[in-house]
């Protein structure tokens, strides 16, 4: 699929809204991840779940167990949450993933909200 980054993020957001519309808030993050991955694949996007992100310290690659929730089209990182409110630590997490995975765009999506647009943030490195 040959799309630009904005088209990909639009499709991701559309799928996230569909998942939220069907499930609503209050479920575990893993349920939203499974359903969002299904929706993304269903519209023909390439999806990788729980993709390992090595931490790079100087010239050393460390496998510290960090994982991207969903990577779409090898270009957009999605970090999913199901929390009362997004905190600065969540922003730091997605920015770190963007840096170490060498990606430009990330979406932080909190499904534990009444209206999904209130739980959605886009990040660019």
Task: Characterise the protein shown here.
The protein has 125 residues and is of the alpha+beta class. The chain has one domain. It has helices at 5-23, 29-42, 88-101, and strands spanning 47-52, 55-57, 60-62, 67-72, 76-81, 105-110, 120-124. The strands form two sheets. A five-stranded mixed β-sheet has the order 1-4-5-6-7, sandwiched between helices. Strand 2 and strand 3 (60-62) form a beta hairpin. Helix 1 (5-23) packs across helix 2 (29-42). The longest helix is centred in the first third of the chain and has 19 residues, at 5-23. The radius of gyration is 14 Å and the shape is globular. The mean pLDDT is 95.
- SSE run: HHEEEEEHEE
Quaternary status: single chain
Task: Count the domains.
Answer: 1
Helix content: 25-40%
> Which overall shape is indicated by the principal axes computed on the Cα atoms?
globular
* Terminal CA distance: 23 Å
Helix vs. strand class: alpha+beta
- How confident overall, as mean pLDDT? 95
- Count of extended strands: 7
How much of the sequence is in beta strands? 25-35%
- Biggest beta-sheet profile: 5 strands, mixed
Helix segment tally: 3
Low-pLDDT stretches: none
In short:
The protein is of the alpha+beta class and 125 residues long.
In terms of topology, how is this protein built?
Elements (H helix, E strand, L loop, with lengths): L4 H19 L5 H14 L4 E6 L2 E3 L2 E3 L4 E6 L3 E6 L6 H14 L3 E6 L9 E5 L1
Parallel strand pairs: 5-6
Antiparallel strand pairs: 1-4, 2-3, 4-5, 6-7
């Amino acid at each position: 699929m040959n799309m630009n980054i904005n088209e990909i993020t639009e499709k991701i957001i559309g799928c996230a809204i569909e998942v939220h519309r069907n499930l609503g808030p209050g479920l575990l993050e893993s349920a939203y991840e499974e359903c969002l991955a299904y929706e993304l694949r269903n519209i023909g996007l390439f999806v990788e779940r729980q993709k390992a992100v090595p931490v790079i310290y100087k010239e050393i690659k460390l496998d510290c167990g960090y994982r991207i929730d969903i990577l779409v089209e090898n270009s957009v990182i999605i970090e999913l949450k199901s929390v009362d409110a997004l905190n600065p630590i969540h922003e730091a997490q997605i920015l770190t993933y963007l840096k170490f995975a060498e990606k430009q765009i990330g979406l932080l999506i909190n499904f534990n909200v009444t209206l999904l647009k209130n739980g959605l943030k886009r990040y660019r490195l």
